[in-house]
Write the structure tokens for this entry.
Amino acid sequence: MDVDELIRRYAAGERNFPAVDLSQKKLIAAYLPGINLWGADLTEVNLAQARLWGANLSNTNLARANLTRANLSGANLMQANLRGARLHYTKLYGANLTDAIYDASTKFSRGFDPKSHKMQIF
């Protein structure tokens, strides 16, 4: 699926896009609150400044994704792959990060403690 189709379908009211492949796509500043991307391939996707509050991102592959300044408040990121992802200034208030995977190359905002959010280092 390409970005234009996703945006068009979302604007028409569709919210469920499970297992979609958006790897290496640019969704900078996308407005997609409440979207369901369960199990999606978002490898190297650019979601900088995206508004994804309340989104279902569980089991997604966000490896090396750019989530800088994105709003993921209340989002479900259970078991998401965040290895190498950039989460600088990302809003994660109320987000569920249980068993989300990160590694030494994952970049968090200063003061963010992945262990306190029940994340797993890989």
Observations:
- The mean pLDDT is 98.
